[in-house]
Each structure stands twice: as C-alpha cells, then as structure tokens.
Amino acid sequence: MDKNDTPEGDRIAKVLSRAGVASRREAERMIEDGRVKVNGERIFSPALNVTATDRITVDGAPLAAPEPARLWLYHKPAGLVTSASDEKGRKTVFDDLPEDMPRVMSVGRLDLNSEGLLLLTNDGELKRRLELPSTGWLRRYRVRINGSVSEEKLDRLRKGISVEGVDYQPMQVTFDRQQGANAWLTIGLREGKNREIRRAMAALDVTVNRLIRISYGPFQIGNLEPGEVEEIRPKVLREQLGESDGPKVQRRRPDGSTGAKPGLRGGGPKGPGGARKQASEAKRSGSAKGTAPDAAKRPGGTGRVFGAKASGGGDRLGPGNQRPSPKGDRSGPKTDRPTRGGPGDNRGIKPPKR
C-alpha cells in the first residue's frame, strides 16, 4: 500500500487506551463486545482508525479527552489481587487506592502473596511501553526461601533455566544471608514471566515464602509503607522516558487526601492513624536509620510521607525501620535509602541483619 493511502488517525483501541479507558487489549475486547460506538455506529472490530473529529462513546458515555501520562509508585501488601475484579471476591489492589485517584492500570502484576513495588498509570500506551521486555528495565526482588542453595545451583539461574518447557532468561542472583531454616536472596529480572521466581526456585528444590519487589527500572520502593501511594513528578517521568521538563506533584495519603505533613503542619485527621498518631510515628522514625527525613532530599517523589494501610500483621517490609513479626522473625530487609526515579536501578535493599 502506498503511504499516501494509509488511513489518517490512530487505531480505535489505541485511542481508548490513551484516554485511560482500558489497556489496548482490554479495549479490543470492549469493541468486540459492542460497547463502543464511532459517530453513532456500533463497531465490532478494532481494525478502524479514528481522528479527533470522530465522535466516540463507550457504554453510551462520550470519550473524554486524553490526560497527560502519569505514573504512581504503590507498595502492594501481600494478600491483594492485581486485577480490576476477582471472581472469588478477594480484595484487589484497586480497592486499596485513594478514592479520588483517576482510573489507573497496573504496569505488570504481582501475584497474591507477593508484595512490594507496583507501578500504576492512567495511560494505556505508557503501561504497554513499560511492560515490554525491549525496554530493558531490571526488576529487582528480595526473596526469602525455605532451605539453602549452593552457588552451583544459583549458577543455573544465572545462565538461564528451563522449567516444565518454559525457558527463562538469565537472572542476576546474589546470595545475601542464611538465617536458620531461611535464606535471603536478591534477584534481578528483565523479563518477568508469570511466577517466574517461584517456579525457578522450585526447580532448585526450595520454596519461596516471601517475595518483595524493590525496584522496577529506575523506580524504587524506598521508604513507601505497605498501602502507600506516591506519584512520580512529571519532570522525572519525562526524564526517564527521554522527554522534557514538567511541574511537581504531590504524594497522596491512602485516604486520597493531600496537604502538609500530617501532624507537623496540620491538614490531617485527628482520629486513629491521623495527624496526632502520625506525628508521634514521624518523631520516632526520624531517629531511625534510612527513614523519612532523608526522603525530601531525593528526586522522583515529593518527600512527603503519610500513613499507610497495611494488610494483616506479622513480618512486613518496613524499610529502615523493620519491625519483627509476632514469631520473632527479624529477618525482614532494610533499605539503603535508594533514590526513587533516579538515573539507575542498581540500588536496593541491604542484606538483613539481626
């Protein structure tokens, strides 16, 4: 086909994705289900280009103009499903987000029992771009296993391993520490297939009993508490995507509100988990190594730390201020105060210490 015969505009699924309606794949399913109309005519095939002059409706509602691409860091607690809905009625990560956040999609997934950094975006094209292996971004995890592995076995992961007919690319693996029946590893992936680490470790005859994602490319979990959300400054996002400058943004509390640091300059609730409690916690954590006072000095986030909703109790990740579980397990990892949104992804969490 001559390039002059190429239809104007963009594919309808791409336009819907760009507007934050759904990912491109989900948008194609919506079209096939007959939920989308273009200029009053219901369509059933995504093989259609549209322009700004076309009138598009989804479920009878006009398509909103696309918003600028935005990106959030979210510390996913264990026990939440990374899905818009769950057929078993389990709570999802989207049930845990501030109510006034726009519709967002997850960049990749973390399974039910995994925790740590999950990227969220309002832009389907950005989601797709960051998920592609060709992006080359390293995803790093702290992994606790039951049992012990030799360097010889870990070399199998470093060279690439095949499990039940599935080939996994070479992993970056560091043995951090053996502690009783458990051991801590740091593992880096550039591909991230479904349950890749758990399946690879099972092939080495050990079981993963805790898995925490600590970074996704240049974006790192830092001091985010479980359930906490922080929006990346547009300037930092553009820098990482090779684009231009932009305005600053603000971290949100889990209840969706914004404002000054809770309990320090007002603006927070007075009830449980509110300003008074947060002020007390901020005072205690200020003396801990690697805690919130240094966050304001780091680029990427806003440096404002708000209370977080944790799911369940026990041995959870508390960067720089680890609390032991009721069972006395003090093996949770600590951070070395990594830079979120900084130019690199080679920082992470130091090996745990007693």
Structure description:
- The chain is of the alpha+beta class.
- Among the domains are: 10-62, Roll (Structural Genomics Hypothetical 15.5 Kd Protein In mrcA-pckA Intergenic Region, Chain A); 71-133 and 221-239, Alpha-Beta Plaits, CATH 3.30.70.580; 138-216, Pseudouridine synthase, CATH 3.30.2350.
- Helix content is 17%, strand content 22%.
- It contains 7 helices and 19 strands.
- It has helices spanning 12-18, 24-32, 124-131, 151-159, 196-203, 234-240, 275-285; strands at residues 10-11, 36-38, 41-42, 49-50, 56-58, 61-62, 71-76, 105-107, 115-121, 139-146, 161-163, 166-168, 172-179, 182-189, 207-216, 219-220, 229-231, 334-335, 349-350.
- The strands form 5 sheets. Strands 7, 8, 9, 10, 13, 14, 15, 16 and 17 form a 9-stranded mixed sheet that branches. A 4-stranded antiparallel sheet has the order 3-2-5-6, with no helix packed on it. Strands 1-4 form a two-stranded antiparallel ribbon.
- β11 (161-163) and β12 form a beta hairpin.
- The chain is elongated.
- The termini are far apart.
- Mean pLDDT is 75; it is low at 246-250, 259-299 and 302-352.
Proportion of residues in extended strands: 15-25%
| Full CATH superfamily name of the domain at 71-133 and 221-239 | Pseudouridine synthase I, catalytic domain, N-terminal subdomain
Radius of gyration: 22 Å
- Give the CATH topology of the domain at 71-133 and 221-239: Alpha-Beta Plaits
* Low-pLDDT runs: 246-250, 259-299, 302-352
Roughly how many Å apart are the termini?
A: 67 Å
Total number of beta strands:
19
Task: Characterize the biggest β-sheet.
Answer: 9 strands, mixed
Task: Indicate the structural class.
Answer: alpha+beta
Average pLDDT, rounded to a whole number, is 75
